[in-house]
Amino acid sequence: MIYSGSIERVDFGEVKDDKFFVVADVEKGKTKMDWRKLEEIRPFHDRYLKLSSQKDITDQVISALPAPDIMEDAVVRLVMEYPRAWAPLIDDGAIQDYASGAFEFHFVKRPQMDERIRLPHDQTVVDLTPAELLEKFWQASHVPEEDVKVLQELAAEILQEEEADVVVGMIGEESEGEESLAVPATQ
Length: 187
Hints:
By secondary structure, this protein is an alpha/beta fold. It is 36% helix and 22% strand. The N and C termini lie far apart (126 Å).
Protein backbone atom coordinates (compact mmCIF):
# COMPACT_ATOMS: atom_id res chain seq x y z
CA MET A 1 0.00 0.00 0.00
CA ILE A 2 1.33 3.44 -0.91
CA TYR A 3 -0.04 6.72 0.30
CA SER A 4 1.32 9.64 -1.64
CA GLY A 5 -0.38 12.27 0.53
CA SER A 6 -1.79 15.56 -0.58
CA ILE A 7 -0.63 16.93 -3.92
CA GLU A 8 -0.69 20.43 -2.42
CA ARG A 9 1.19 21.70 0.62
CA VAL A 10 -1.34 22.09 3.39
CA ASP A 11 0.68 23.88 6.07
CA PHE A 12 4.06 25.46 6.75
CA GLY A 13 5.39 22.18 8.14
CA GLU A 14 5.59 21.08 4.48
CA VAL A 15 7.25 24.27 3.19
CA LYS A 16 10.40 22.43 2.05
CA ASP A 17 8.77 19.15 1.07
CA ASP A 18 8.56 18.00 -2.54
CA LYS A 19 5.21 16.59 -3.59
CA PHE A 20 4.78 13.41 -5.62
CA PHE A 21 2.09 11.25 -7.07
CA VAL A 22 2.30 7.57 -8.00
CA VAL A 23 1.46 5.90 -11.28
CA ALA A 24 1.05 2.21 -10.65
CA ASP A 25 0.72 -0.62 -13.13
CA VAL A 26 -0.95 -3.38 -11.20
CA GLU A 27 -1.22 -6.92 -12.58
CA LYS A 28 -1.84 -10.16 -10.81
CA GLY A 29 1.38 -11.04 -8.99
CA LYS A 30 3.27 -8.04 -10.34
CA THR A 31 3.11 -4.28 -9.56
CA LYS A 32 5.20 -1.57 -11.12
CA MET A 33 5.26 1.91 -9.52
CA ASP A 34 6.53 5.19 -10.83
CA TRP A 35 6.88 8.13 -8.40
CA ARG A 36 6.47 11.43 -10.24
CA LYS A 37 7.42 14.74 -8.74
CA LEU A 38 4.91 17.56 -9.07
CA GLU A 39 6.71 20.57 -10.48
CA GLU A 40 4.02 23.26 -10.62
CA ILE A 41 2.51 23.28 -7.14
CA ARG A 42 1.61 26.35 -5.15
CA PRO A 43 4.76 27.83 -3.61
CA PHE A 44 5.06 28.47 0.10
CA HIS A 45 7.39 31.19 1.36
CA ASP A 46 8.21 31.25 5.05
CA ARG A 47 10.15 34.26 6.37
CA TYR A 48 11.32 35.44 9.79
CA LEU A 49 12.25 38.95 10.89
CA LYS A 50 13.53 40.14 14.25
CA LEU A 51 13.44 43.92 14.43
CA SER A 52 16.46 45.50 16.06
CA SER A 53 15.74 49.10 15.12
CA GLN A 54 12.57 51.15 15.20
CA LYS A 55 13.75 53.12 12.17
CA ASP A 56 11.67 52.55 8.99
CA ILE A 57 9.89 49.46 10.33
CA THR A 58 7.59 49.15 7.32
CA ASP A 59 10.58 49.20 4.96
CA GLN A 60 12.30 46.52 7.05
CA VAL A 61 9.20 44.31 6.88
CA ILE A 62 8.77 44.77 3.13
CA SER A 63 12.48 44.00 2.60
CA ALA A 64 12.03 40.72 4.48
CA LEU A 65 9.24 39.62 2.12
CA PRO A 66 9.73 38.13 -1.35
CA ALA A 67 9.24 40.41 -4.34
CA PRO A 68 5.59 40.84 -5.42
CA ASP A 69 6.03 38.68 -8.54
CA ILE A 70 7.44 35.85 -6.37
CA MET A 71 4.49 36.14 -3.94
CA GLU A 72 1.93 36.06 -6.77
CA ASP A 73 -0.48 33.18 -6.02
CA ALA A 74 1.83 31.85 -3.28
CA VAL A 75 1.16 31.22 0.38
CA VAL A 76 3.39 33.57 2.37
CA ARG A 77 4.07 33.76 6.08
CA LEU A 78 6.17 36.36 7.85
CA VAL A 79 6.88 35.84 11.54
CA MET A 80 8.12 39.04 13.12
CA GLU A 81 9.52 39.60 16.62
CA TYR A 82 9.79 43.12 17.96
CA PRO A 83 9.68 45.05 21.25
CA ARG A 84 6.05 45.54 22.28
CA ALA A 85 6.52 49.33 22.49
CA TRP A 86 7.13 49.47 18.71
CA ALA A 87 3.68 48.10 17.82
CA PRO A 88 2.23 51.54 16.92
CA LEU A 89 5.05 52.03 14.39
CA ILE A 90 3.96 49.02 12.28
CA ASP A 91 1.92 50.05 9.23
CA ASP A 92 -0.21 46.93 8.73
CA GLY A 93 -2.09 48.47 5.81
CA ALA A 94 1.07 49.15 3.78
CA ILE A 95 2.39 45.65 4.51
CA GLN A 96 -0.92 44.01 3.54
CA ASP A 97 -1.01 46.10 0.35
CA TYR A 98 2.51 44.98 -0.55
CA ALA A 99 1.53 41.31 -0.09
CA SER A 100 -1.89 41.65 -1.77
CA GLY A 101 -0.88 39.47 -4.75
CA ALA A 102 -0.25 36.46 -2.51
CA PHE A 103 -2.83 33.68 -2.49
CA GLU A 104 -2.64 33.88 1.31
CA PHE A 105 -0.56 36.15 3.52
CA HIS A 106 -0.02 35.34 7.19
CA PHE A 107 1.58 38.17 9.17
CA VAL A 108 2.43 36.67 12.55
CA LYS A 109 3.42 39.34 15.05
CA ARG A 110 5.27 38.32 18.18
CA PRO A 111 5.69 41.32 20.42
CA GLN A 112 8.36 40.74 23.03
CA MET A 113 7.97 41.89 26.58
CA ASP A 114 10.97 43.79 27.73
CA GLU A 115 12.53 42.46 30.85
CA ARG A 116 12.22 44.98 33.60
CA ILE A 117 15.40 46.48 34.85
CA ARG A 118 15.95 45.25 38.38
CA LEU A 119 17.78 47.25 41.00
CA PRO A 120 20.17 45.47 43.34
CA HIS A 121 18.45 44.22 46.49
CA ASP A 122 20.12 46.88 48.66
CA GLN A 123 19.08 49.79 46.43
CA THR A 124 15.75 51.59 45.98
CA VAL A 125 14.54 54.14 43.47
CA VAL A 126 14.86 56.94 46.04
CA ASP A 127 18.59 56.16 46.27
CA LEU A 128 19.08 57.14 42.62
CA THR A 129 19.65 60.64 41.28
CA PRO A 130 17.37 61.93 38.49
CA ALA A 131 20.23 61.37 35.99
CA GLU A 132 20.66 57.76 37.16
CA LEU A 133 16.92 57.13 36.91
CA LEU A 134 16.88 58.58 33.42
CA GLU A 135 19.78 56.34 32.39
CA LYS A 136 17.85 53.29 33.65
CA PHE A 137 14.88 54.45 31.56
CA TRP A 138 17.04 54.69 28.40
CA GLN A 139 18.32 51.15 29.02
CA ALA A 140 14.81 49.80 29.48
CA SER A 141 13.72 51.56 26.28
CA HIS A 142 16.61 50.05 24.28
CA VAL A 143 17.92 53.44 23.23
CA PRO A 144 21.25 53.02 21.40
CA GLU A 145 24.30 53.74 23.57
CA GLU A 146 25.50 56.64 21.40
CA ASP A 147 22.07 58.30 21.77
CA VAL A 148 22.03 57.73 25.54
CA LYS A 149 25.20 59.79 25.94
CA VAL A 150 23.70 62.76 24.05
CA LEU A 151 20.38 62.48 25.88
CA GLN A 152 22.11 62.30 29.26
CA GLU A 153 24.11 65.46 28.45
CA LEU A 154 20.91 67.31 27.47
CA ALA A 155 19.19 66.09 30.61
CA ALA A 156 22.13 67.28 32.75
CA GLU A 157 21.80 70.78 31.24
CA ILE A 158 18.06 70.82 31.92
CA LEU A 159 18.50 69.53 35.48
CA GLN A 160 21.17 72.18 36.19
CA GLU A 161 18.88 74.93 34.88
CA GLU A 162 16.02 73.59 37.00
CA GLU A 163 18.21 73.47 40.12
CA ALA A 164 19.32 77.06 39.48
CA ASP A 165 15.69 78.19 39.11
CA VAL A 166 14.74 76.43 42.37
CA VAL A 167 17.60 78.11 44.27
CA VAL A 168 16.68 81.54 42.84
CA GLY A 169 13.03 80.88 43.72
CA MET A 170 13.95 79.94 47.28
CA ILE A 171 16.06 83.11 47.72
CA GLY A 172 13.17 85.16 46.34
CA GLU A 173 10.73 83.49 48.74
CA GLU A 174 13.00 84.25 51.70
CA SER A 175 13.26 87.89 50.65
CA GLU A 176 9.50 88.14 50.25
CA GLY A 177 9.01 86.49 53.61
CA GLU A 178 11.37 88.91 55.30
CA GLU A 179 9.61 91.88 53.74
CA SER A 180 6.25 90.68 54.92
CA LEU A 181 7.57 90.36 58.46
CA ALA A 182 9.14 93.82 58.40
CA VAL A 183 7.56 96.43 60.60
CA PRO A 184 7.16 99.85 59.04
CA ALA A 185 9.39 102.46 60.68
CA THR A 186 7.65 105.18 62.70
CA GLN A 187 8.50 108.78 62.12
